[in-house]
Amino acid sequence: MDHFLYRDGQLYAEDVPVAEIAAQVGTPFYCYSSATLTRHFRLFDEALEGTEHLVCYAMKAASNQAILKTLAGLGAGMDVVSGGEYARAKAAGVPGERIVFSGVGKTRDEMRVALEGGIRQFNVESEPEMAALNAVALELGVKAPIAVRVNPDVDAKTHAKIATGKSENKFGIPITRAKEVYAEAAAMPGLDVVGIDVHIGSQLTELEPFRLAYEKVAELTEALRAEGHDIRRLDLGGGLGIPYTRSNEAPPLPTDYGQLIKDTLGHLGCEIEIEPGRLVVGNAGILVSRVVYVKSGEGRDFLILDAAMNDLIRPAMYDAHHDIVPLTQPAPAAEQAPYDIVGPVCESGDTFAKGRMMPELAEGDLVAFRSAGAYGAVMSSEYNTRPLIPEVLVHGHQFAVIRQRPTFDEIINRDTIPEWL
Ligand SMILES: *Cc1c(COP(=O)(O)O)cnc(C)c1O
């Protein structure tokens, strides 16, 4: 459920007509709903009620500081995967003790900054990384709290590019080697082993892979405790999927996911961390675009939009489907025709949908891509020297631009031309 609904034939974001934002901000732009963000965060928080827990929003899904601040105000922690994200979380006012640091390639500089600025835990993904973190912590005279990310070799049954829990993926250490690696960690004086971390992939539409992974984590917790490790925290990653189409079967709900966590791990008395990203922000954002031309091709018609693959890369990168709807609600009996919906970038891959049935649209009409809040703005680029598009946050009757569209001068002036040229 989100807060982008038609009222009197116009698409609204909460209490603001989206067309009104378009008139002020210009297209294309991303638009987020605070109420939807809040609702989705709370679903996770409530799903773990009765269990000591922290919901660490995976901010790589959408990392605008206004979004981070909205969530931090609700009690969210953050899952960061780079020094840049760490700095962003801190800038948005998130205290270090609510930040977990994930990622396979943390550099020593990133480790240093996080240890100095405060960190809840590092999720370490390899033995060389463990050794580096130990060295950095000793240099600084501190102990780095760690969980080791284990790879449970579970098939997440999602798109190959976002599956992370199979043995062939680069993530974590094989769960079969966990005892050895934990023994090594315990022997490193710069590390404080606090828990276990697992994250098997993104856009999971079934609970079963989570169950398989969490059962393995439960077993491992007991095995490691038997070896004397004080496992007191379990970081269970993110990955719960969202419905990208209205018609498809709905993925499991956060309450059922929470229940699964309690069923598989509740008896261990550990503090639970989860790292949802997509489900918190995915349906809380839309991408608004204008039809530049309607072009008749051979055997097909193209809707050429002013948004392109550089603004929303998911269709090109993951063959992802986004519902695309006109801002003006079509009449219930309106005729539909198939369109290839494309952007202006000079690549055939700049295609959002092929043969998509749409009501009749004309030059200048506005459309919204639904479920574009996660892995949308954050994955955008300035390819073709197209400026990064604005982000807008709506809250009830109010809206604000939370990232400005840069001018061409700002973009161009980032280059420097050597004096010898
Ligand atoms: C990407 C990622 C997440 C978030 O995944 P979602 O599918 O967006 O919920 C959580 N944890 C880690 C380690 C990740 O890499």
TrEMBL record:
Domain Orn/DAP/Arg decarboxylase 2 N-terminal positions: 36-281
UniProt pathway: Amino-acid biosynthesis; L-lysine biosynthesis via DAP pathway; L-lysine from DL-2,6-diaminopimelate: step 1/1
Gene Ontology biological process terms, A to Z: lysine biosynthetic process via diaminopimelate
One Pfam family named in its UniProt record: Orn_DAP_Arg_deC
Binding site for pyridoxal 5'-phosphate: G239, E275, P276, G277, R278, Y375
Binding sites annotated in the UniProt record for substrate: R278, R314, Y318, E347, Y375
Gene3D superfamilies, A to Z: Alanine racemase, Lyase, Ornithine Decarboxylase, Chain A, domain 1
Catalytic reaction(s) noted: meso-2,6-diaminopimelate + H(+) = L-lysine + CO2
Domain Orn/DAP/Arg decarboxylase 2 C-terminal, first and last residues per copy: 29-373
Keyword Lyase: yes
Catalytic residues as annotated in Swiss-Prot or TrEMBL: C346
Keywords recorded for this protein, A-Z: Amino-acid biosynthesis, Decarboxylase, Lyase, Lysine biosynthesis, Pyridoxal phosphate
Family: Belongs to the Orn/Lys/Arg decarboxylase class-II family. LysA subfamily.
Function description: Specifically catalyzes the decarboxylation of meso-diaminopimelate (meso-DAP) to L-lysine.
Entry protein name: Diaminopimelate decarboxylase
Source organism (scientific name): Roseovarius gahaiensis
